[in-house]
Amino acid sequence: MKAKKEVTIYDLAKALNCSASTVSRALNNHKSISQKTRKAAQEMARAMGYRPNVLAAGLRNNKSKTIGVLVSRINRPFSAALISGIEETARKAGYNVLISQSSDLYENEVSNSRALYDSRVAGLIVSLAMETRDLEHFRNFSDQGIPIVFVDRVPDAFDACRVVIDNYTAGYQATKHLIDQGCKRIAHFAGSQHRNIYDGRTRGYRDALKDHGLPVEEELIIPFKTLSFKEGRKATKKLMRLENPPDGIFSANDTAAVGAIMYAKKLGIDVPGQLAIIGFNDDPIASIVEPPLSTVSHPAGKMGEISALKIVDQSESEGDTTPPETIVLETEIIARQSSLREFPMPGTPALDR
Fold first, then answer.
1. Which of 72, 84, 206, 285 is the most interior residue, by most CB within 10 Å?
2. pTM for this model (two decimals)
3. Under 8 Å between Cβ of 72 and 130
4. Domain span at residue 228?
5. Does the bond joining 147 to the residue before it have cis omega, within 30 degrees of 0?
6. Is residue 334 part of a domain?
């Protein structure tokens, strides 16, 4: 089927018997054009199916009204909530969103960032891939004055805004919650330690044990590649085969924690009586698994809103530069049945029913 010819601004000008520049100003609600002419131009544009060439306008201005978003995996609940927060905020500000995923691979992140750069995005919001260490692929953006906001998985050293949570405190509180339930030997499902979020959660875990007089046993700290459901099952199998298995698990995400619950149930281990488990993120699966999973809240939607606002503010600042800042959002323990034993310690949050 032959494609229909695209309606141009010159076609509108011919139909309205006026100049193309007049039509352009009318469609953009310019004050120099009368309300009658603006209304006529906009009605004719709708009738003829005219579409403004946003890309061409971006090429002329060297700036688009599009925010690039680069996350690890779009199908993760955290990423979905983050993107939702970005998209809603961007739309209110008159921006579009272009989304890309790295699948946690460095090479994908490099090629995707180049594609977003070539698309002349107004700014870039990034949650780093698990593999990423070298950040040179983001230099083009900063060199050209294109704002970048790193969110959640952020670099230690890059001149850009960051939106994060206090992972150290969250990890400490999650471990302390298990200690408050009477756990004496707590294992930790640890993510890749070169990523700030997992390093912080692990440091919080270690310090909580030390501060409460419990030993840090390296055999109970299980390194994970992706913190997947399968890895959670595998790690639990390994831990339960120890001569002295743990009585608690703090997982750096909910997915691996659910894997632990499912494998423990398969072995007939009582959760939380024999094995108390807490995850991280408050993914939807946390409230539907049986028993419901205790977890740490993660304000992904709010992080997305703030990230988008920062991009819009910087993109429209007309050359005014503000020093990069790190915005830290709060988290809280959401205590459910997977960790709450028969007699919760004082101060433990109420059971989420």
1. 72
2. 0.78
3. yes
4. 167-298
5. no
6. no
